[in-house]
Amino acid sequence: MREDDFEFFKSLLLKQRSELINKADLFKEESLSEKVSHGDEGDVAASEFNLNLHLRLQERQVQLLQKVDHALGKIESKRFGLCEICEEPLSINRLRARPVASLCIACKEEQENKERSFATRSL
Questions:
Q1: Residue 55's pLDDT band (boundaries 50, 70, 90)?
Q2: How far apart are the C-alpha atoms of 60 and 52, rounded to whole Å?
Q3: Which of 5, 25, 68, 80 could, after both became Cys, cross-link 74 (CB 3.0–4.6 A)?
Q4: 50 three-class SS
Q5: Eight-state DSSP code of residue 1
Q6: What's the rounded Cα separation, in Å, for the pair 54 and 76?
Q7: How far is the C-alpha of 28 from the C-alpha of 26, rounded, in Å?
Q8: What letter would DSSP give residue 98?
């Protein structure tokens, strides 16, 4: 990968990181101001449902933030864009679509197949 590619993805990831942190801050402000413990059972249930939904979304954003930080670390070490399993280069198109990608398509498909196989055996 060329140096300007590293800079492009670093800029893209830093922007994504900033957006995720801003969303987290906004969530904190909203959740503090939206505490509904009064009203009828329907209002309370709707409030709890919305809070649970926001919490799940927040958890996903935290996971994405961790992936962004991991990708930024890989840029610093010049390991960005290499599959973490086979160490083959990831395609630029894959990285543009998902800059936090850490596996090539073949290794990702193999990982997903193993997960599906394990999930069906667990049932």
A1: confident
A2: 13
A3: 80
A4: helix
A5: -
A6: 33
A7: 5
A8: -
